[in-house]
Amino acid sequence: MTLVKHELKQGKISFLIWTASIGFLLAICIFLFPEMKGQMDSVNDMFASMGSFTEAFGMDRLNFGTLIGFYAVECGNVLGLGGAFFAALCAVGILSKEEKDKTAEVLLTHPVSRKRIITEKLIAVLLQITAMNLIIYALAVGAIAAVGEEIPWKEISLMHLAY
Questions:
Q1: Number of neighbours of residue 73 by Cβ within 10 angstroms
Q2: Which of 26, 69, 109, 157 has the lowest tally of Cβ within 10 angstroms?
Q3: Residue 29 C-alpha from the chain's centroid
Q4: N-term to C-term CA, the chain
């Protein structure tokens, strides 16, 4: 667990920056919904006229004029792309920094197996990703409440769980 604590401490700044950035963009996206609500009927009509293309991507089941439809399309892109970039950068960085900083030789001389080192480093990545998702979930729910919309708990929870 020493490695987990060390990696969490080392990645704290990056975690805070990525979480704040994604949370800010998600909140901005949600705050735009009341302005866009009236204009989404034309978007629904446009996608309805595309026929099999709309069905192939499952867009025939989404109503962009509702909060959950808007959230799934617009905010889902921000959450999916930002979260994927953070997870990839965090996982690659946590494993490659030992080689880059030339500390792998020192770390591997300790009486700890290589399997345990990698496992603890990846546990730290998993904890950071989970914490980021929980914080962003709370920010999204807070932004939806601030907009004055009813919070669709089941749909929002399932969407965040999927991401």
A1: 16
A2: 109
A3: 14
A4: 27
